[in-house]
Every structure is written in C-alpha cells, then in structure tokens.
Amino acid sequence: MEKSLARYIWKNTRLQQLWILAVVAASMVPYFLSFDLPKQIVNGPIQGDGFEGPGARQTFMHIAYDIPLIGHVEFFEGLQLNRFQMLMALSLVFLALVVLNGLFKFYINTYKGRLGERMLRRIRFELIDRVLRFPPIHFKRVKSAEIATMIKDEVEPMGGFTGDAFVSPALLGGQAITALVFIIVQNFWLGMIAAGIVGVQAIVIPRMRKRLLELGRQRQLTARELSGRVGEIVEGIGTIHGNDTSNLERADIASRLGRIFSIRYDLYQWKFLVKFINNFLAQVTPFLFYAIGGYLALQGRLDIGQLVAVISAYKDLPGPLKELIDWDQMRQDVQVKYQQVYEQFNVEPLIDSRIQELATAPVGPLTGAFVITNLTLSDDSGARIVDHVSVEIKPNETVAIVGPNGSGAEAFAEALGRMVWPDSGRITIDGRDLLELPESITGRRISYASADTFFFHGTLASNLLYGLKHAPMTDPIYDEREALEYKWHSAEAEKAGNPTLDLNSDWVDYKAAGASGPEDLLTAIRPVLDAVLISQDILDLALRSTVNTDVHVALGDHVVALRASLRDRLRDEGLDTIVVPFDFDAYNAQATVGENLLFGTMKRPLMTNRRLAAHPYFQQLFRETGLSTDLYAMGLEIAENAVELFHDLPPDHPFFQQLTFMTADDIPTYQALLQKLQSRRFEDATPEERSAIIRLSFAYIEPRHRFGLLSNELMDKIVSARKQFHEHIPADLAELIERYDAERFTPSASLMDNVLFGRIAYQQADASDRIRGIMGELFDALDLYDDVLSIGLEFDVGSGGKRLTMVQRQKLNLARALLKRSDYFIFNRPLSALDQRVQDQITRNIIEGLHEEGHRPAIIWVLSNARQAEMFDRILLFDRGGLAEAGNYPELSEKNGMFKELLS
C-alpha cells in the first residue's frame, strides 16, 4: 500500500486533478472581476465620476489590446452609454459574474464529489481485496467487527478528501490571495492589516489544532475497539449467559463508554476554543477597516468606492481562509486515519494476486500425488503441532488419519486444505508447491470440510452451491434500458479500479456438479444430499414452507391428486383415522377453535389475528351469533383450569409445552384477571378484558388439552357461524382470507397443510413422522420430489447459518464440498456433532458414492473413531505432532502398537 494518502490520491487521480486545477485557475478571472466591479459602480454612475456634464456618456465594453509585433488591435469599439444606462449595464455585468462564479463552483464541487466517491469506492475495494489475500494466520489476530468498521466508516472521510486534496488549496487559496491582492491594490495599509490577521490565523490556528488531531485519533481508536467488543459480545452471547458474566460485560462497556465520553468532551472544549479564537480574529479585521479606512476616507486619502470595494472583498476573505484552515485540519485528520488503515492492512506476506486471478475455462484434473516433505506447523505461541512429517498420498487412494486430540492430525489436514501455511517443509502436487497453485485449481480440484462451518446469509441452495460459483458462466439477458445502465455501471467501476464482473450472470458451474444446466441440477444434487442424510431435513423445511405456485406450478396442479393418494395410502395401511380432513359442514376436533371458525388461512402480514378481531364485520358476527358470550365463558374455564394446574410449576416445566394458548409468564396475569372477573358478567368486563379471555378459546383443541369444554351444541354453533362468516364476507376481508377448498391449492397455507387438507390426530403416536415418510414416497411416485426439495432449498439459513442446527450445518458443509466432484477430498472431523452410528453411515455413503465406476478421487479423512479406518486403503496415525504409524487396517490392528490401543 502507498504510505502517504496524498501520493495515493495523486497516483490514481492525477489526470482528473490537473483538469480541475485548470478549471480552478480559469475561475479566478471572473472572481477577481467581481471584486473590482462594485468600485466601478459606486465611483462611476452612482457618484457621477466621468458624468459631470449634462448628457455625458462613457464607453462600455471597449475591447482593444496592444499585441507585440502586431500593434494595437481593436476587437470591439464599445457602446456609448449615459449615466443610467451605464449603471444598468455594470449591474447586469455584476449579475452575470455572480452567475458565472456560481456555475464554476457548481461544476467544481460536482466534479470533486464524483472524484471523491470514485476514490472511496476504489480504496474500499482495495482494502477488501487485501482482506481476501490476508495469510490465514492473520485472521486469528484481528476482530472482524474492527475490520468492517474501518472499511465502512473510517475510510469514509478519505473519499470526501480526495476531491479536496489538491483542488481546495488551489481554489480557496486562490480566492484568498485574489481578495488579499485586490485589497492591497486599493490601499497598501489596509492590505497589510488584512495580511497580518491572515498570517496569525494561518500560523496559530493549525498549531492549536494539533491537540484536536490527537483527540480525534484517540476517539477513533476507542470507537473501533468498542465496535470490536460489541461484536465479541454478540458472537459469545452463549458463553456470557452460561457463565453469568453479563454484568461483567456491562461494566466493561460502561468503562469504554466513559473513556469515549471523556475524549469527546475534551475534544468539544478544545474545538470550540479554537473556533472562538478564529472567529474573534476574523471579526477584528472589519473593525480595523471601518476605523482606519473611515479615517483615511475622511482625510481624502481613500475614496468611498475603494472603501466599499475593500470591505466587500474582505467579506469574501474569511470564508475561503477558514475553509482552507479546515482543509488543513481535515488533511491531517485523514492522514492519521489513513496511517492507521495502512498499519492494519499492510500485512505481509499477502497472497499473490495472480493466485486469485479469474479463470473461466475448465480446470483439468490433478493427476499427481500429494507429496508432503518435512512438514512443520506451529501454533500462535510458536509450539510445534506437526513436526517434520513426510508422506505421499496417491491420487486414487483413501487415507484415514487417526490420532488423539492434539496429536497434529487436524493441523496436518488443515495444511493439506491450505487453511494454514507451513513453517518449513513443502506440500507439492505434480512437483508444484501447493501454496503457489492458483485458487482456480485448488478451489475446484481440492475440497476441504471440517467441523467448523460458516454459511452466508441467504438461502440453503445459495450456500450449497457456493463452491461452484468460481466465475460467470453465462451472461444475463438485458433489455435496452438495462443494457445501457449496466454499461454505465461498468464504465464507472473501471474508472474506480473495480472489476467489471456482472453479479447478475449465472455463476454456477453446472458441469462441475455433473449437471448440464439448472434444469437437471437437482438430479445431480440429490444423491449428495442423500449421502449426507440431509434430504429428510430439507423435505421437512419444505413441508413447513408456503409455496409460490407461480414458480412451482406442478405442485399446485397436483395437490388434489396428492390429497387423494394420501387418503388411499392411509386407508390401505389402516391409518385412515390418523388424519381428520377438513369439512365445511363439520367441526374438525383436531383443529383449534379459531381454525374451525375461520376455515381458511390469512394472508400474512396483511392480515393478522388482532386485525381480524378488530374488524367490524367479525365483531358483528360474534354479537349476532352469541359466540362472544360462549367463547368468553369457555375462555374463563380455560384460564381457571390452567391457573389451577400450572401456577405452582416452575416456568421451565415441560408441561408448559402443552399450553398453546398461554405461556408461563401469562399465568400471574390471568390469575389476577380471574380474581377481578370472578363475579362479573360478560357485559361488565371491559373490551380489553373480554379480548384477553376470548383469545384463550381460539387456541383450544379438545383432544390435546382435554378440559371437556367443547359440547356438540357449541361445535354446531361454531360451524353455523363459519357458514354465515363466509356467506356474507365483505370484499376487503375476502381478499385477505383464503377459504379451504378440497379442489384447490391454498397458497397462504404450508405445503404440509395443503397435502393433508386436515389435521393429524393427537392420539396417534409418531403420527407426524409416519405422515412425512408417506408424503416423501408420494412425492417420488408423482415425480414431485425434486420440486418439493427445491422449496426446502429456498429456506433462509439466517446469519452464519444459525437457523439450522449444528448437525444440519455440518451435513450441509459436507454436501457443499462433495458437490465440487474434486480430485482430492480432505475431511477434517467434519461430523463431530453427529452420533457415531450416523457418522459411520455417512462415511460409508460418501466413500461408496464418490468411488463410482471410472471415477475414484482421493479421500483423506481425519476420523473421530479409529474403527472407521477399516473402510480406507491406508491409515496414518499421528501422535504428538509426528507420524507414529502407517499401514493398512489389517496390519495395524494386528500389530501391538498405538493403533491397536485406540481400537480397544
């Protein structure tokens, strides 16, 4: 990186800076003329200088020059104007100069702004580019929040300064010098007074501002450290709660905030002291001009026009001068910021940029062996974790690496996956050093997966296919307007030093996954998902999701057939009572009271339970049918039973999981409400109290809660109210509520609800698991499994994949590595969160799945259980950083060595 910000700016924008400096120089001409013109207006037409006689005239705009070797040349003889005409003409010229100066300022500021934004874009990209090239060990020493804060916030002022770096001193300095020279020309002594004040401001104020710069640097450092600390709290929130250290963190944050407050308060005091002195010096000069200039005018040594012109010129002097002093402070401030950025990002050794060059062409397979020679690895403290290990791993063999924790096996695998760099020794393939191979080779032909997983915020599919997005494979199709917009953005990116790669292109390398395009991608993905046993998880996510029938047309078209097939299958297996279907003329005992009353789903978030309850039509229906009093009485019974049964239980008791209508925190609230309503009728309760009680009845399910509150009469009354509700439903409600229809797909309901068209009976054990298994088979039979799977793949995994369980994350991480169909697969205890039986099954699935006929990639697997090594061709046993034993399973298991001890 360039150490000086000024040199960095000049290096990248010198042509633009030269152009704007030329514009600034040109703008000084009308700026000077605007100072001289008021004197001509006052002395000429206003005071009558040159218009002494009646009918006197003067020449306006006479343009003539004496040119060397040519002589006197007259371009325009001018116009003869009387006193009034001259006043109007000069005033119009003054107005024209004001407009011209304004246009110059507009162009210069606009150009500066665009130049600054380009430079900000350039420096942010370069910093992120450097982050992508940091050596792996450096990420253990920095906090991600601090790096993000520096790139987002701390370089922001550098972009604004870029446009001002050379233009502002030229423009502001030129304006100040122009005004000062004009004052000196009018009167030497007034000019010396102005120059003296300017000199004091130029010398004293920057010296005083050195303290401001130091305080600003301290403020920046403490703010960055606070950002990093907050990031640590967010990432370590589980540790904080688990160790009761939340108050320790509060004390730490309060201490940091106190330090920032102290710095900022000191900064404000010093800042406004400097401002006071600067303003005082600026206001002293007009006093001297009025006093001394007025005295000179009284003595006849200075005419009124000159005095007015001097005061007018000085009026424009403090502004540029103050801005010039501010510019100098900003220059020093951004240089301090840039120096800190330089120190943070000037990391050696960086990954060579050639290693990360874009490669759009297919990459050939790696045919050579992994040759590890005298490999030595150390941890951050300098302790050796792998010590002079030499081994060769052939392209087609499977190698199990075993050893106790801390044996060096994990670090050895990390070195093969290029996650860590050797202290000494070499890892080569085909005689080429692994660290010198382009990432276009290692990232496509070598796959690495460990127990540590990370997923970007996005869909499950985008994260699963992340390992296939190496380069844009096809260009997007743009219409004329979009093409012009893309062309403009590309040109701007190029000017800012950014790549012009189009993010809207299709980046997925389908051929690498064994597919010909997006149409058959799921066919290639599915065996991988089955191998790591995550297909059922994705299917469950799909069943709980709503379906966009515009995208998944087949599901919408086949939902009625699916419902019929499910009923037939359940009948054939004697499970026809496991699902109670929806019937518009009957009450569904397995559904809630609210679901029975609505007999449909709401289009959320446009319609919610609260909005529906507040709708006038819904309230009118309740009054006319008498359900208000019935459900109020039912709600009171529910509240009394719940309070009586659960008020003595701790909040974390598992019985509360059965209370869908009330939480542990609600128990005291309803206990107090029952005491208040004990002797009060429905009419005596307030609307809020009625709502709180009736709300309990909406979530009630008789077979689940078993309070015996639903009589046949009440169920018939609810069905009758349902019919009345849908018969006269107003248009605004009809648009937001989708009624259940046995012959139609319901987009606002989940896929499972659409297929079931009913509710699973709570009395049946393992009913949900059996239903999901049958549904999976039905989807397969109707060729809809891939479509359903694609719905599950649209699930948003959340920040860092935290909406998935640890088991799901490790399975997904392994599937992502397998999709690349590499030549070398390195698995570093990737399934540590799974039980041993499932680990064995997945390991066997992967080895059998990868070693198809004609394709046998190398598999290097650090195992958690030594018994799994029986599946591999060769075993490498690590102990205390060294290679203790090597051989195949029969040899080592019969030998009285360390491997046999691990098996026992």
Automatic annotation (TrEMBL):
Membrane topology: Multi-pass membrane protein
UniProt KW Cell wall biogenesis/degradation keyword: no
Domain of life assignment: Bacteria
Entry's transmembrane regions: 15-33, 87-108, 176-205, 280-298
Molecular-function GO terms, alphabetical: ATP binding
Main localization (coarse): membrane
Domain ABC transporter: 370-902
Domain ABC transmembrane type-1: 75-326
Cross-referenced SUPFAM superfamilies: ABC transporter transmembrane region, P-loop containing nucleoside triphosphate hydrolases
Gene3D superfamilies: ABC transporter type 1, transmembrane domain, P-loop containing nucleotide triphosphate hydrolases
The entry's keywords: ATP-binding, Membrane, Nucleotide-binding, Transmembrane, Transmembrane helix
Localization, UniProt: Cell membrane
Family annotation (PANTHER family): ATP-BINDING CASSETTE SUB-FAMILY B (PTHR24221), HAEMOLYSIN SECRETION ATP-BINDING PROTEIN (PTHR24221:SF646)
Protein name (database record): ABC transport system ATP-binding protein
Native source organism of the sequence: Rhizobium laguerreae
